[in-house]
Amino acid sequence: MTHTIDYYFAAQSPWAYLGHQRIWNLATQAGATLRVMPVDFGQVFAVSGGLPLGKRAPQRQKYRLVELTRFSQALNMPLNVEPQFFPVAGDDASRVIIAVDQQHGAQAAMAYTGAVFNAVWAQQRNIADAHVLAELLHECSLENSCMAHAQTPEVQAIYAQNTQSAIDAH
């Protein structure tokens, strides 16, 4: 029996960056299929009691930096805890990830997602910039046509469905 894992994440999340390769490895080892599901966590937070980073208490914001440093060291992963382009909107990157998934499958979407995470957290690149997203496609040997497909109503609907699915998953 094949198992499917719904992999919900925000394209700009440091926690998703730190766990991305690990979930891919675990799914592969278990013979499970990953369903790549970028979501708008701003909407999820609004209904689940979570707060966006800027609205959290200063103590929580500081402790987040401590924890990110600890996890990055424990996982031996490079991480700029306060990258130049953060906070950053992840909606466009999320839509490109969905377009890659539709045109090339989950493995390509996972590779591209990893490149997006690295861009923010290791390379100090702005994933809200369309040129950066196109560069990442090129670096992953994917066609630039994914950029146009990411703008379609179909991809926007999938992004909205993923977000609603995350909300409903309670």
Distance between the termini: 25 Å
Return the average pLDDT rounded to an integer: 95
The assigned structural class equals mainly alpha
Number of strands: 2
- What's the alpha carbon Rg, rounded to whole Å? 16 Å
Poorly predicted runs: none
Total helical segments: 8
Strand order of the largest sheet: 1-2
Q: What helical percentage do the residues reach?
A: 55-70%
- The proportion of residues in beta strands is 5-15%
The largest sheet, given as strand count, sense and whether it forms a barrel, is: 2 strands, parallel
Descriptive notes:
The protein has 170 residues and is mainly α. The chain is 61% helix and 7% strand. The chain has 8 helices and 2 strands; from the N terminus they run βαβααααααα. A two-stranded parallel sheet has the order 1-2. β1, α1 (14-30) and β2 form a beta-alpha-beta unit. The two termini are 25 Å apart. The mean pLDDT is 95.
Layout: helices, strands, pairs:
Blueprint: E1 4-9, H1 14-30, E2 33-38, H2 41-48, H3 58-74, H4 91-104, H5 106-121, H6 130-139, H7 145-149, H8 153-168
Parallel strand pairs: 1-2
Helix pairs in contact: 1-5, 2-8, 4-5, 4-8, 5-6
